[in-house]
Design a protein that fits this description.
The protein has about 120 residues and is mostly helical. It has a domain at about 35-110: DNA polymerase, domain 1 (Orthogonal Bundle), CATH 1.10.150.20. The chain contains 5 helices and 2 strands. It has helices at about 15-25, 50-60, 65-70, 70-75, 85-95, and strands spanning about 105, 110. The protein has a two-stranded antiparallel sheet. The termini are far apart.
Length: about 120
Amino acid sequence: MYSNGQTTLAHRGGRRAIQALVESAVRLGQIVHPYPPILYSGVEEMGLMPRINQRLKIAHIETIGQLIQMTDREMLDITGLGRNCLNEIKESLAEMGLSLGMTIGDGGELIAPPE
């Protein structure tokens, strides 16, 4: 990550700029992207309530890739996240074809949680 001593590129929308650069390099065949690009997107891009975003940030869950690997129980253990918040997260993930409890295979494939 680029740093000028005061500000890192990840601040002020820098994550989106980095994601755009990576996606561009993948399209050009310059690098092989091991995981679906959506996994690198920030949870704030899911359109969740600000309170949920804040709780996820405090719990150090910043990307959708990190979020999908969490279980329902782990989510409910986060202070301030109750059933209603959990349901909103699950609905938002379902709209993207994702769910909590997923794993990411060695080849970048998404594996659904066991039933």
